[in-house]
Amino acid sequence: MVQAIRRNNVPRRAVLQGLACVPAGLAVSSAAQAADHNAVAPAQPETTRPADVTTTPPRQWGAGAPPAYTPDPDVMVIDRSFRDLLFSAATIHRVWDKGVWLEGPAWSAEGRYLLLSDTVTSRQYRYLWETGEVTVFRPESYHSNGNTFDYQGRQISCEHFLRRVIRWEHDGSAHVLADRYEGHALNSPNDVIAHPDGSIWFTDPGYGDGFTEGHADEPGGEANPDGHIRWRIGEELIGELGGVKRQADHTFRIDPSGRIECVLTQEQLPNPNGLCFSPDHARLYVISSGKQAGGHGHDGDQAVHVFDVKKDNTLSNPRLFTNMRFQGVQMGPDGMKADIFGNLWCGVGGPLGLCGVFVFNPEGQLIGRIRLPHGVSNLTFGGPKRNWLFMCAGESLYRLQVNTQGAGAA
């Protein structure tokens, strides 16, 4: 029996957004304001983005940035084995920075593009491999989060707003894979992965049970217990297609027949977030992350857990893979992917200088880090050879060429 996981009170969004990038401000004394009240205000800078302090001197990003030194100072080797996974001449590049909260990167082998979600603006974008452009793919995605492509090349997306998992068929039609379990609507499907046997696995925490990334519950629901949130304003589809009351957290498997099975309950693993398989699909990794709307006190432990996948698709032998503590700090893991050698590449939030990507070998040893100026929500391997690591970090998309390949379909 899988044991319940200890609680930790580090909020997910507080870790990823609050700690990952601390805003800089300017203080003006009241005396100075009184003396200069008739003066013309000085021109304000075009951006208030704080300087990046992950390197010294501060690193510059964007199209006009000078080339970084090689090896890249923000690609940090902790164990010698990490060097074998790196292309020594590669440097981190910021591909795009016009999002709000980017999530769910997935590589389309047929389309040769990277799909990604902006959970706040409710759009999907794609990064075109041939040109490097980022264009709007779906102007309305119903606050989609996680995405993947199955082994037939079909796009699968988790929609927070409509609280469902859908598959886009090759003819352009949408097929609902899951929107209810045991008579109850889902919460806000978060991350999703495909299995070669045709099944789809996904997590269903409550991070989209709010108006920022989805919609809140109706009055009396866990995400709106006192009814103060005006849950129907601005979104006429609420209550017609999406769920209206939060249920317990689950990790689900959708059988190829369409049957939905619970593989982990809230008691077994609260607040399930990112998940991925080992390259041989014999193990399932699941992140238990922090507090969410309407959680009523139940909380995850900000750790990565691993389970053996049995032949009947049930899980056994639960164990801690990593507690995600680094230099005395509890980091906040979110999404992850395995490479072909079984190493786990995990996006993490935390203090500036520590956040970015952590890389673990199959035994759970931290072997390398990638420092970024923001916590990483999710990542994937892409490119025609699957040897480019794409990282979603707040408003920005980053990439790094590596000397390994992603495992799995997307």
Automatic annotation (TrEMBL):
Region of interest called Disordered, as start-end residue ranges on this chain: 37-68
Pfam families: SGL
Keywords: Hydrolase, Signal
Keyword Plastid on entry: no
Gene3D superfamilies: TolB, C-terminal domain (2.120.10.30)
Keyword Signal: yes
GO MF, one example: hydrolase activity
Record-given protein name: Gluconolactonase
